[in-house]
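hey can u run this one w/ zinc ion bound, need the structure tokens asap thx
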Amino acid sequence: MDEFAAVIKAREFVRKVNPTGIPVRVEAYVEEVKAVLRTQTDLGPDEPGWSLCNGGKHYICVNANDRPERQRFTICHELAHIVLGLPSEHNELPWWSYAKRPPAEIICDVFAAELILPYRLFKPLADEAAIDMDSVEDLAGRFLASITATGSRFAAVVTAPCAFVLSEQGKVRYASRSNALRDAYAWIQPRLDLPRGSASEKVRAGATCDGPEKVDADIWFSDWERGGMLLEEARHFQQWDQTLTLLSFVDDEVPSAKREELREDEEELGLEELDGNLRWPSKKRRR
Ligand SMILES: [Zn+2]
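ok here u go:
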């Protein structure tokens, strides 16, 4: 099972329950699978919850000491294990760490985010919001979801070109992109070091980020030939060495390959074209 399949399953599941208000009632999801939900007060800080099946009945237990948005996410993550039939791989890793998270666990997180932030309720609000961290934080509050889950859903559903990146220890762990960026092949390499000169690198080094900063698009996207400036906003969480990044394009438009610039380059190269191999200038030369 991949993330795409998990999203389809999650949307089917959400359609059955058909939540209409926000924040969505996660209890309605629990009722849909006829699971028994309990809270437990003696779970450690790195144990968000668990589920088990006994005699055909599912039991979900959640850490009562966690914040409400964390508990809601845990419940939906456990529902993902039940609905998708994926066994838990909750080993010794802390819940917040993406560094070595098994793929099945990430798939369950994706499923959970679809439940907490249902497409039909979330997309219209995301589309009418400004593309910035304030919007992500505001929506997170309204949906009672974490900033991370909300940001990654925000980038996935908005019509404008947008990406949300989660990095840990200065390396990209997870990137969510809107269709506009996918269509333009704006690819953010997993395990990429936070790009030099990016707002994210600066906040990780202790600077404050008061609003979007303009950066060259090619510092974030691999093999990016279209140029353009991104607006980058970043938040850093020292206790987990986690950095959250929101990227969008100035004017909310992906630049098309610039014809004039290309023509100039072709002229500059002149005779070299005659051998049939058009040599594209290197990125360095074009700057
Ligand atoms: Zn799990």
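Residues 68-84 form the longest helix (17 residues). anyway lmk if its weird
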